[in-house]
């Protein structure tokens, strides 16, 4: 029997740099502090290049952060040996990378892809796991079981990649844009599958999405901005998040009036902070400074 239920994740001061061919460093993440509870369902949002995929790959133990720590439950995966990480990826954390085909073996069949994804799981642990055929049925690919992946459509590959990711019955499922190529009908079915997995097994689910309809089904959203957590949504309400060293992102609709480099005055009361343009200083009503 496998451990039932999900597991939590925590990032502390996570920084990630990529070195380009020309030898330049690109800062993809610049200080991410984030905690995800066991069994939580979270959607990562944010503009292209804001670091969503990088953060997901770090949480999945596919890349190591340049600095900072990442914990899966109590285990620090940023310092784990490669052997332990491989075991963890095979059995506890499943990551579906952006672009379905990167997760699949293109020259073999759907059914065999599911078999390969479970290669690192001892067969005794799979006794009560769904069969390859049951998984394919769940994602609407029963008729494609013996079809070779390279002949499948983008949407079919995306659904197969998800079936492969859940085949190991992971405690954490990380999925990078799992519905970007699906029709509305297929998208809704896949989103339902993700939530069912959470309900039935307590699996912790993190998805990256650009689709508001998908994000709206998640109780928590984390919006990335410039390599940091910019804001969070909880049960429909939106909050700004104070980052490392007190950094705070302005909501994006305010940035045109408050461009980078603007000097502001900050006055703090016990439960309120007022940010004002020096030119407006005299205009702050006293009752607003609490
Ligand atoms: N392998 C790489 N080499 C160099 N730079 C990279 C690499 N991968 C990502 N980057 C850069 O890191 C930053 C963050 O990229 P990331 O892919 O995490 O963003 P994203 O939020 O997932 O974007 P998208 O919504 O387009 O998928 C970007 O500036 C990107 O160009
Ligand atoms: Mg991405």
Automatic annotation (TrEMBL):
PROSITE patterns (UniProt xref): ABC_TRANSPORTER_1, ABC_TRANSPORTER_2
Record key words, sorted: ATP-binding, Nucleotide-binding
One of the record's GO molecular function terms: ATP hydrolysis activity
InterPro entries on file: AAA+_ATPase, ABC_transporter-like_ATP-bd, ABC_transporter-like_CS, ABC_transpr_LolD-like, P-loop_NTPase
Pfam families the record matches: ABC_tran (PF00005)
Gene Ontology CC terms: plasma membrane
Domain ABC transporter: 9-251
Record's protein name: ATP-binding cassette domain-containing protein
Organism: Nocardioides antri
């Amino acid at each position: 029997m496998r451990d039932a239920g999900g597991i939590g994740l925590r990032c502390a001061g996570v920084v990630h740099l990529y070195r380009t061919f020309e030898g330049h460093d690109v800062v993809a993440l610049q200080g991410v502090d984030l905690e995800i509870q066991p069994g939580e369902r979270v959607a990562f949002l944010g503009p292209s290049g804001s670091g969503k995929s990088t953060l997901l790959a770090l949480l999945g133990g596919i890349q190591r952060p340049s600095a900072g720590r990442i914990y899966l439950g109590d285990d620090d995966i940023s310092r784990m040996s490669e052997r332990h990480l491989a075991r963890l990826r095979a059995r506890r954390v499943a990551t579906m990378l952006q672009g379905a085909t990167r997760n699949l073996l293109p020259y073999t069949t759907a059914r065999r892809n599911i078999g390969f994804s479970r290669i690192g799981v001892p067969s005794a642990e799979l006794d009560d796991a769904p069969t390859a055929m049951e998984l394919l049925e769940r994602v609407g690919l029963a008729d494609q079981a013996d079809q070779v992946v390279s002949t499948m459509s983008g949407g079919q590959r995306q659904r197969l990649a998800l079936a492969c990711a859940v085949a190991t019955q992971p405690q954490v499922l990380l999925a990078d844009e799992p519905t970007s190529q699906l029709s509305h009908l297929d998208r809704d079915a896949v989103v339902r599958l993700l939530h069912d997995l959470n309900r039935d097994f307590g699996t912790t689910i993190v998805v990256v999405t650009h689709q508001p309809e998908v994000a709206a089904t998640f109780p928590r959203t984390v919006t990335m901005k410039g390599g940091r957590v910019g804001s969070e949504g909880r049960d429909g309400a939106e909050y700004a998040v104070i980052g490392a060293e007190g950094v705070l992102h302005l909501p994006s609709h305010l940035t045109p009036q408050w461009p980078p480099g603007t000097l502001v005055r900050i006055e703090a009361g016990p439960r309120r902070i007022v940010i004002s343009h020096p030119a407006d200083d005299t205009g702050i009503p006293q009752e607003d400074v609490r």
